[in-house]
Amino acid sequence: LLVLSTFSGGGVLVYSDLNTVAAPTDRKKKVVVLGSGWSGYSFLSYLNNPNYEVQVVSPRNFFLFTPLLPSVTNGTVEARSIVEPIRGLMRKKGFEYTEAECVKIDASNKKIHCRSKDSSRLKGTSEFDMDYDILIIAVGAKPNTFNTPGVEEHAHFLKEAEDALKIRQSVIDSFERASLPDLTEEERKKILHFVVVGGGPTGVEFSAELYDFLVEDVSKIYPKVQEFTKITLLEAGDHILNMFDKRITAFAEEKFQRDGIDLKTKSMVVGVTADEITTKERGTGNVVSEPYGMVVWSTGIGSRPVIRDFMQQIGQGQRRVLATDEWLRVEGCDGVYALGDTATINQRKVMEDIGAIFSKADKEETGTLNKKEFKGVVKDICQRYPQVELYLKKNKMRNIANLLKSANGEDTEVSIEKFKQALAEVDTQMKNLPATAQVASQQGKYLAKCFNKMEKCEKNPEGPLRFRGEGRHRFQPFRYRHFGSFAPLGGEQTAAELPGDWVSIGHSSQWLWYSVYASKLVSWRTRMLVVSDWARRFIFGRDSSS
Ligand code: FAD
Ligand code: MG
Ligand code: MG
Ligand code: MG
Ligand code: MG
Question: Ligand 5 centroid to 417 CA: how many Å?
Fold first, then answer.
């Protein structure tokens, strides 16, 4: 890319930058991948370069298809159906796998420290070090409690397969317990009060799944206690699903109200004890405590301790999330990449680079850009800086095209001042990518492709840097493509927000959702299992044994 060549962090990005370790010729470079989730699994699936020795370290020997995790909590889908064992991929690709957790990254010695799972049956834990030439951090994130007292001890999270199974077990236990003969009405009500904290996609989807379970199954299997059940959904902001289109938010809020889900917005949870959950209302400051039977906490994610420690080491201690550049290389650290929920991309600001962009575009060095130069540079910066494209879309290109016209409507050239003025606002359009499976898997695929063509690029590292044609041997920065979001709302209804401002809500999108997810499942094995789970549920209802 033209623009990239002049300033991307003060230098041209050549392949050798991506491959900072000079390995002895007789030894393959060792790539250590931390994590077997969306980003790690996607990287491993697309990596096809025999010149690397690949070692995977993850405490979980399977990939988990998280979008269907809420459906595991009520037994619509079995947990087994949405996991893909990693050993199969390892064998196919000739990669090594070690079931352990990385507990420390020692970036200056290119080592990681690992600990195996605690198992009293098998001689406890073991700890060991591992060297790497290149480290790929794909460890995801952990649920964020915002240090709210009591959450860690008393609430359920919904992040891993075992969390979903524990929730399922706990829901069924609640109904069995509430059905015991010697309880008062108050006690039954308390046990059957389910509180969901967080009105994001996961919290909403879980509430919807729970509601479906109450309506479709509990009414049949626990008819005596059904009247005592209550679902409360607490959200600190003004609305649930606030990252979605307003129409979807409104639809979801109305549906929940109709269903009798007690939706409380502007409610901040300030503490959880064994029996009560306490909220503070934003605005009024009212503090209320309510008895509950079960709390599911789903308010967002935070960095894992091992990543926080690593950030301290490399001078990123002040940041909230580990930062990479647009090639997913961790800033301030050689040979380390990070992708998925564990990292964010530090995007470049146009205004910081604007002088360089202008002089590069002004090929004839006239001090102004003619029509051709100008159109070319706008095209390039749209590619290089995603915020420009967003900005131009919002402003319908009007401001930009007008630059080529003088006050009396004649064609003119663009000066640096006009250029700056026109782009002054674009950086306000910069947004971090969302922490989603869509982003994580695209990043994994992107990085694998970079690694796949590493040698080819190393052979022609220099040469004239042209951003078209020759550019294909150089690494383009990561670009995200949004394919749409889905918010399953229960009762076989799903809201879909697709690119191009296309919103659809209802039963047809439910089927769209099924088919999109069925087609995205990683293997035919899991696809078969999920589809047969769905079919089983349609025919026989959900399994309520725990
Ligand atoms: P993960 O997929 O979480 O993978 C992290 C991996 O690292 C795991 O294998 C873990 O075991 C491993 N690991 C953890 N700690 C260590 C360590 N110390 N050392 C080594 N390995 C470690 N996104 C969507 O786009 N659409 C959806 O519909 C959707 N629904 C979701 C529903 C739920 C219930 C949840 C929880 C998430 C959902 N997401 C969805 C978000 C999506 O799952 C995440 O954005 C995605 O998993 C991020 O991928 P990742 O690779 O960064 O992390
Ligand atoms: Mg991962
Ligand atoms: Mg995952
Ligand atoms: Mg990220
Ligand atoms: Mg010129």
Answer: 14
